[in-house]
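Journal club side-thread
Mid-discussion, someone asked how the predicted structure for our own chain would compare to the paper's figures. Pasting it here so we can look after the session.
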Amino acid sequence: MNLREKRDAFSQSHPVINFLYFLLVIGSSMFCLQPLILGISFLSAGIYASYLKGSRQFFRRLLTFLLPGMVVVALLNPAFNHYGVTPLLILENGNRITMEAIAYGVVLAAVLGITLTWFTCYNAVMTTDKFVYLFGKILPASSLVLSMVFRFVPKFSQQLAVVRQGQKSIGRDFSHGSMIQKMKHALTIFSIMITWSLENAIETADSMKARGYGLKGRSAFSLYRFDRRDGLLLSSLLLCSGIFFYFWRMGQFYTSYNPQLIISLPKTFRESLGYLSFLILCNLPMILAVYEKIRWRQARKIAGGAGSATINHQ
């Protein structure tokens, strides 16, 4: 976790708040396929990921991984699905490329990018100890396995860099030699990483078992306390999500991609309240970050003014 992540005010909130927030925003983005909702979610996820990881790292990941994957998903749907009543192109074999299939492919691509971006934020905020704190007593074995899965990718990447550097120093990296030698070196590195992964999993399981993890009546030390700020955040989460789900249930976000493209858009201020509540819900971490930054500047200004007054008095 880098310095930017440590300074995030939302990451310092109670784990219940963090988990509920990501459950709401990710779940809403996956099942509500209204384009405006998806646009709000994608922009909010991108802003928060840039804040946590840095804008340079986020845009590098966006250009090298997210966008190519989204383009593939967007192209595959109209290539294999031909539903819809608005044909744009008729192929030689009789299959039609329809506007509805293209639109739904773009929506599926957006859902993929949104979900991966939100999970980037989730991995930065919901650390392993938070997840085990929430589900350790309810589902001890499952929570341990899931926490190991969530941290597997970053740990695997770090260890792979170490192993590659070691193999490269003795001339056995897959960037050296002929094609056959490169394949042998790659298989060697892969074998080392698989062995390391299995050993790491066994060591973690033995360590948790030695500590009595999962035993009935076992107590655990925790630094998490539900304070007044957490109560305000929970109230804000419930209020914004309640308004959003109410309008969703009333059909304000109705969208159809088959057989005809139908997208409902807000026409009055009342119909816009659902979108506004979702916008506030998605950006609660950034609102909290701005609020804490303003408070910090005011505190420094007051402290600086008090110090100047003391010097002048002396």
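Post-session note: Residues 53 and 138 are 32 Å apart (CA to CA).
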